[in-house]
Amino acid sequence: MATKLKTIWTDQKFKITCSFLTVVLVTISFGALFEAYWFNWDYLANTNNYLESAELQNKVLTAYDHIDQVYNFYQSEENIRAGNAIDPAAMEAYKWDILAELDLNDPDEMGVSTESEMLTDPDFWEPYADELEAQKKQLINEGLFQYERLKKELEQTQGLSYVINSKGVTNSQPKDANPDDLLKRRVNFTYNKGAISSTLPKMDQFEPLDYAVEPDFQVIIGFDDAYIAEREVLYQAERQEFLWLMSIFVVSLILAAIGMLLSCISAGRKKDNEGVQLLPIDAFWIDAHFLLLLVVETLVVAAIVFFYDQNFPRVVMLMLFAVGAALGLNFLLSLVRILKDRRFGERLLFLKLIKKGWGFIKNQFKKLAGYYNDVMKGSPTVKRLMFWAILLVILALSVQVPILGVCSFICIIYLLYLGGIKAKKYDGILEGLERIKNGEVDYKLIGYDGALGELADGINAIGDG
Q1: Which one is predicted more confidently, 97 or 275?
Q2: Is residue 91 in a domain?
Q3: Which among 276, 268, 286 is positioned nearest to 335, based on CA atoms?
Q4: How far apart are CA 381 and CA 420, in angstroms?
């Protein structure tokens, strides 16, 4: 049995078949998931009953929102043109923009005591009257556009009927809509002076909209029973398609995981001898391979989304999924072979760069230490000066005085240079004394001046005897 299994694991056709099937199954799995995601799954996945679905709940609340804006906030075209539907916060925001351009952020800068007075000071805002009027007209035009758009959406909402009562004025769609008939429908919604009720579950948790301006505003919404029945049939068909897609995703993913496991087990196995059979791709740094894969996979996903938005054939996106799956599996198998060969640490470029960087830093420290030991020895004056110069640099950085830090750095460099030259001269004199002491009477100390020159002449005289 063990021999038979070894034969299977090392069979090249078995390895290729497992890898190929894994790529195909991953492509099918994520292709189905992608299709389900773009099928607006957040509405389709929440329930089997259309009357309890988020889709219908969203439809009812959207209708309520539009009705409240049209009949309660905007009320009428005349009301909008009179400027009564302008949100005060919009004008305040525009005034704050003007103040920001003038760099006025505090009441004291305007000679007032509160921010409210900053926005209402008539003397200050008089020069900006034309700008404020132009902004007001722009907001009115935006309100008219929004009003007409919302009215059109309400008219085009399939199966929608409603009756509104505000300030004793009744509006309805269609004109012959009756409140009692609407309340008998399978799907209805009522807002009555702040109280919400509906045939749909969990609708009473919603609060009245913030921009409701009339406390006695009343609305009854109902959807045509025939329309709801039609939507129930379509909803179930769409949900079944969604469930099929998710089933394909789960089953394909499980099978792909099995195929991937078999591919990993057989990866790198040899027929005739022990050891791991590495491929040329395994010579590549594994972390660099991963980063490259990450970039390519990101481009593949971006291309899939782009092609989907542009309504390309599904086969194009499936091909891209296959490319991504193949590249991912190739990386995984390469990683498995490297792990089996116990060379993971050797194939990490990042680790090698860290080691080289650390080695470079250590060499630089050794060179500095060598320079200090060979050149700067015997020079306590230079050491003291270096200490004070370094202290100045630290102080400069701590109090954030760049010019002092720069001067201190230049001072350190100069002292190192000067101290090095001086130390070399001391070493030269010591070397001359040692050589004359050892009998090299012809050796002369030259190139010294000042006090060191006098000392060199005295040593040369000793050599002359």
Answers
A1: 97
A2: yes
A3: 286
A4: 12
Give the residue numbers spanning the domain of 259.
Answer: 1-39+232-346
Backbone angles phi, psi at 449, to 5 degrees: -135, 170
Strands 218-223 and 187-192: antiparallel
Q: Does the residue 353 lie in any domain?
A: no
Residue 213 in any domain: the answer is: yes
| Same-domain check for residues 292 and 435 | no
Among 199, 223, 247, residue at a domain's last position:
223
pTM reported for the whole predicted model: 0.59
| Greater pLDDT, 247 or 310 | 247
Q: Is there a single domain that holds both residue 113 and residue 241?
A: no
The pLDDT of residue 211 is 43
Weakest-pLDDT range from 84-98, 119-133, 225-239, 427-441:
427-441
Give the whole-angstrom CA distance, residue 312 versus residue 197: 45
Based on the fold, state whether residues 99 and 207 are members of the same structural domain.
yes
Q: Are residues 217 and 72 in the same domain?
A: yes
Do 174 and 284 fall into the same domain? Answer: no
Burial grade of 62 (CB within 10 A; 0-12, 13-18, 19 or more):
middle
Regarding whether 212 and 93 lie in a shared domain, the answer is yes
Q: What is the pLDDT of residue 322?
A: 92
Tokens of 265: 């087990």
Are 58 and 125 members of one domain? yes
Work out how many domains the chain is built from and give that number.
Answer: 3
> Which contacts (CB < 8 Å, 24+ apart) does range 138-147 have?
139/86, 139/87, 139/90, 139/91, 140/80, 140/81, 140/83, 140/85, 140/86, 143/74, 143/80, 143/85, 143/86, 144/77, 144/80, 144/81, 146/69, 146/74, 147/70, 147/74, 147/77, 147/80, 147/85
Tell me: do 302 and 411 sit in the same domain.
no
